[in-house]
Every structure is written in structure tokens, then in C-alpha cells.
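Section 5.1 Outputs to date
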Amino acid sequence: MKFLLPLLLILLSACGSTKEKNTDKEPKAVLKAETELAMPINLPDPGPDQCRITGTIVSVLPVSSEKNKGLCANHACKAVVKILKVIAKGNSFKQPITETSELTVHFEFTLEPTAGLVPELEQALPGLKVGDSFETILSAPGQKMGMESTPVIYKAFTYNRL
């Protein structure tokens, strides 16, 4: 028992951080947001009608406030994405996605960083711009009979920037 207290003190002092303290006096909220952005989101396995891909943003489509409501009325939500790799497809995912395909993808929480825009998200998204690579789960809405020639707009909710 006599040796337990000194041993505990030695262990605690050895665990001290060698990291420099922040002397810029940045607000804690900013530091928290940066920490959250650095952590990857745990993307689930794709569901039956979903596909997990890695892709690159080729272009961001302009905001169209007449057709959009909510976040997408004022923030870019659609982009052309070049598929780099198809990681997994659900057994009901019928869309012909291959590597090098270019698709229009609607990002439900915008292409902008979400820390201030969508505070209810468990983890803030870092935002994506032209040239950024990312991994996500895509879902494709079912096409209605007679609408087969209408371009499919895929949906992405969360992603990990690579």
C-alpha cells in the first residue's frame, strides 16, 4: 500500500500532454467544430437500394431557389460527381453505376460546411468543393413507369472527405 500512492503519482505525471497550449484564445466552439470535422463519419453498409462509392466533385450546380426549399434554396446542394470506385451495392440497386461514371448527386445537407447551417447534425460535415474526393452512400429514387428517360438524381446524406 505504501508504494501505491507514489506509483500512481509517477503514472499520472507521465501521462501529461506534451502538446503546446493554445495561446490564440480561440473560442471553444470553433475548436470543437474543427475536432468534429476531423473525425470520419461511420458510414453504414449500403441498404438494398443503395450503393457505397468514392467519388470526386467535378462541378457544383447553381442554386435554383424556385425549385428548392429549405437549405437548398440558398446553398448549393447538387453536384456532378465522377465515380472513382464502387465499393458495394445493395441487392436491389439497379442503376448502372461504374467507375468513371459521372452522376448528378443531391447532397441533402448541402455542399457547404454544416457546423453553422445544420446544428442538429450529430457530427458536422466539412463541405465539398470541386476537386474534393469523398466516400458516401448513394440512394437512387425509384423511377416511375414511363420516366425511364428522365435523368436519375442520386441522393447523398453524409460523407467522409478523403
